[in-house]
Amino acid sequence: MRLDRLLLLPILFVAASSLRAQSFNLDVGDNLILWPVPSNGYGGAAAQTGVWNNVSHPYTIALVDLAGAPSAASCASTVSSSFNWPFGTLAGDDSALMNDIQAISSIGPAATWTFSGLANGNYAVYTYAWAPDSVNAHTAVDVPGAVEAQQIVGGSWSGSPHVQGLTYALHHVAVTSGTLVVHCAGSGGTSGSVNGFQLVQEGGSSFSSFCAGDGTAGGVACPCSNFGALGHGCENSATTGGALLSASGSTSPDLVALQSAGELPSPSSILLQGGVQLATPAVFGDGVRCIGGVLKRLYLVNAVAGVASFPPAGGPSISARSAALGDPIAPGSARYYQVYYRDPNPSFCLGGSSTYNVSSALTVNW
Description:
- The structure is a single chain.
- This protein has 2 helices and 25 strands.
- The chain is mainly β and 366 residues long.
- The chain folds into 2 domains: 24-201, Jelly Rolls; 207-365, no CATH class.
- The protein has a 6-stranded antiparallel sheet with strand order 3-4-7-12-9-10, with no helix packed on it.
């Protein structure tokens, strides 16, 4: 059983695209000699390259943006314990980010991170909360006001790519008063960990969600009243709350990364691109398709821990893949995206005739 780590807790902030109004990468730790910050080319789970802030105890610092320029934003944490793990197999930037952490006692208070001075807007918050010293330790991460509920992070990991639920939690939240709060605590009687954050501001009109099968007035009607969680697609047979499609990164240059979270653990998943948003959504397996026009199947991947990521590691960018399939994307134009994924339980919905479902939809204004 892991010993409690009674030292310093930092918090990390989620980073946005290089062209967003305000974006940050934060590496939480206290030993720059053994554990320097990751290189500027390390994008992490958000595919967000740029300068990483060194967030050392007592973890109250002014933040620099992705270009290294001073900003009005700052962060602070209620816990000031740290822990370094010089063992294991991680190397390079993975080790720099993940092996020195803020340590949250299993018998002490939760760590509350407060980010102040932010530009108002929609943010994707990536909270790295992996314990480098124990596969049995897990951290509960909660962002008040976020679309997603509390998420539990932890388990066995040997290096990039990062995996939601294993190395990080992902929340989407609207900042309206310049302040963002993240709560982190040990889960299941174990100590908690914070390795860092990326704050991705989804500002402007680059990304916008629609086609939620959540039973709200603005959503779509799921085929057998199998409504999902707020903002998600229709519910699936694993009762995850349905799949939520989200985006991060910049459109110029194309560093857009899409993630469909809330699928079954490891289904085949296809990213579908459309040229129009359907005026009348169509039943599509156990879900609803809201995109149409010129349809392109951009990538086929297998989800990991319920999350399908696009482009896949080593794959071409979304715009390059679209052009290769005969649909070049002109600057200023829009494309629409959904992910359909295998759900092999034929009796879940529609009287046994369907073995797939589909995520919520997303507009990308290129």
